[in-house]
Amino acid sequence: MDQHAEECLPGTRTELLLDIQNWAVSAEGKCIFWLNGLAGTGKSTISRTVAKAFQQQGLLGASFFFKRGEGDCGNAARFFPTLAKQLLIRVPELCSTIIEVIQDNPEISAKPLEEQFDELIYKPLHSLNQSKLSSSCLVIVVDTLDECDHDNDIQLILQLLPRVREFKSLCLRFFITSRPDLLIRLGLNTVDHNDLILHEIPKPIIEHDISLFLKHRLATIRHKRSLSPDWPGDANIQTLVTMSVPLFIVAATICRLFEDHNLDPDQCLTEILKYQNQESKFDGTYLPVLDRLVSNYSGRRQMQLVQEVQEVLGVIILLESPLSVISLSKLMGTSTVSITARLNSLHSVLNIPKDEALPVRLFHLSLRYFLLDPSTREKTPFWVNKEQMNRKLLIRCLLVMQKSLKKNICSLKSYGIERRDINPNSIGHYLPSELQYSCRYWIHHLVQSKDLINQVDYILVFLKEHFLHWVEIMSILGYISEVVQGITVLQSAEDRNDSELFQFLHDAKRFILKYREIADIAPLQLYASGLIFTPKRAITRHFFERELPDWIIRGPEVEVHWSSELQPLKGHSFSVQFLAFSPDGRLLATSSGDRTIQLWDPTTNTVIQTLVGHSFPVQSLVFSPDSRILASGSNDTTIKFWDYTTGTAIQILEGHSSSIQSIAFSLDGQLLASGSNDTTIKLWDPTTGAVIQTLEGHLSSVQSVAFSPDSRLLASDSRLLASGSNDATIKLWDPTTGAIIQTLEGHSSSIQSIAFSLDGQLLIDVSLQTDRWIAIHGQRELWLPPEYRPSCSTVKDATIALGCTNGRVCVIAFSI
């Protein structure tokens, strides 16, 4: 609620405010009090007054002031989350329940309204302990419900709110204001509620209140402008009262005209009184302001001025979220000087801040209704053609985006940087308000223009060039769910199933639905995980494959089309536990819970040899550097060396007290390292099978080991057991002395696989549990979709192979 917005003048609305107060505290009060009235009758002023009074009395539970054209203020998706946040403050007992809901479902604000209500309002309140709560009711103020963006949302809200009557722990009531729309009347038909029609309050009461308001404001104006004590005269004041009744907004606008130091108050009075006999109350409010704009001009200059003002005014009244003069100039492609000149005479109907960086706002939506009303066309040349002006706004939005959109627009240093970690100042710098507005609302203006058929080619060209760039910005701003909604709207507007635009939208929606989760977390994953795992012939991949990160030189085998399934390698009777390529790349070894090892020809997907000998599942495999020997580590605590050509075990190494999790040969084949659940690492002589050294330092099982190319460093990893949660470290060892050189920390769960690059400078590691990320040199870079999250993995140089629980084998090569 705007703390500086006007409230009811003391002495006005006294009976009405008393009725609302009695309803709120009465034990017999109904669940909903509906105050309805025509536009301009003062509903929002009353709501602000009521909310402030209830807050002072400790009766205010929450408030939400809907306002169309003010961004999220018209968005029903923000309604229940906002109420829940405010109720947390008023009812602290709700904290643990609601916080748990948000942690379990961080995208709750993007869920359907019914799910939001159930999870954020109904269930938390229903679970409260009645004995610990106050017996008095809490009131939730919902102002101008009719200004919610979508009629379906209004209907659903009215269906959901009465369910609070089921609460035994807490009494909740709703004070709702709106215009007397049929939709809301029908929605409340089946609900027992109080209602009061503002414009049907007896005329003498309304006239008294408006007279009191006018006399108070005019006295202030006389003082500030040094006017005579009796100005403008009792008769004129009474005329102004008559012209205003029953609309307070008319009286308020008249006063703003008199307050404008650029205008002669007597001349303003004369112009206003010309319209005293008009049927429309708004004629006398807005026509004097508009007439004045061109009164000193004629001919071509007058026509030019009308066009200039009409365009600025039309844009302002149709914006879904207000913009500053600076942003308006960039959106409209004109100078701030020109816009300011056009706005100079509109201070009585527009809130125009002195600071050009602050948004320009309507004082009241009645100006919008007046300028868009077809009957206004005959009264003033400033009438705005809604469809035509939305078409202009669409074109301007597209031009702004085409000029600015590009990959990684915020210059993020890594593909794994999360949205929550992006500096808000950086967002403001790289994404100015006009660009944010264009990205969020271009589809709205397209729909409102009712001109998709003539804009198809333009829209298609834009999407082919900038679809992912647009989605990136929407992800950064936290509006990824609106992308899905926008595409759905476009699909419904483009009903030609065989059109190129329809096909593009169908593919784009599949892409977003698949990757919206990670895009909302780390926006640049749209270009990494999103593109690399998208089907080969997907339209989105076709147009944006050029945007793949240059550090990915070979991606995994993926589906050809969205609907097809991969053909996984099959042969084991249980899930795959481990896999390893031979150094020459000609063989792939896999192990399984069935205790066998299989050798594959990866080019033909055929099994060459099956090795049997371990008494428990095999957890790790590695080929010798010359590819002649395969070593296997098992849960039976042994390591076996195999001659895979004959299928026989040629040596057995014993020494660990628990299962073997990882084994690795040094580059020269002179050392074998093994990591075990017994938390140790052992260095072996492969020729004799003797233990050379035992390395100790990890606090939990060692999951992976790898030698640097010169064999001078050994990297290992282990889970840390601390405060009841799993964490992970990577340790760098000197295998000669057994000393720990360095400990690397950063993962939040166990590290399954690590490897050095050929020059020994880059360490590639894969985190497979909580993070679901591939990280390069400790920096998360590639997110793995659920179907690609492996049960085992292996790394060779800068190539990672992932074995998945569904049988899928995924190989990704990185450029280093």
Tell me what you see in this structure:
With 816 residues, the protein is of the alpha+beta class. The chain has 6 domains: 14-201, Rossmann fold, CATH 3.40.50.300; 204-277, no CATH class; 299-384, Arc Repressor Mutant, subunit A (Orthogonal Bundle); 388-554, no CATH class; 576-745, YVTN repeat-like/Quinoprotein amine dehydrogenase (Methylamine Dehydrogenase, Chain H, 7 Propeller); 766-814, no CATH class. It is 37% helix and 22% strand. It is built from 24 helices and 31 strands. A 5-stranded parallel β-sheet has the order 2-3-4-1-5. A 4-stranded antiparallel β-sheet has the order 8-31-30-29, with no helix packed on it. The chain has a 4-stranded antiparallel β-sheet with strand order 9-10-11-12, with no helix packed on it. α8 (203-225) crosses α9 (234-244). The longest helix is centred in the middle third of the chain and has 25 residues, at 452-476. It is elongated. The two termini are 54 Å apart. This is Mitochondrial division protein 1. Residues 20-179 form the Nephrocystin 3-like N-terminal domain.
Gist of the model:
With 816 residues, this protein is of the alpha+beta class.
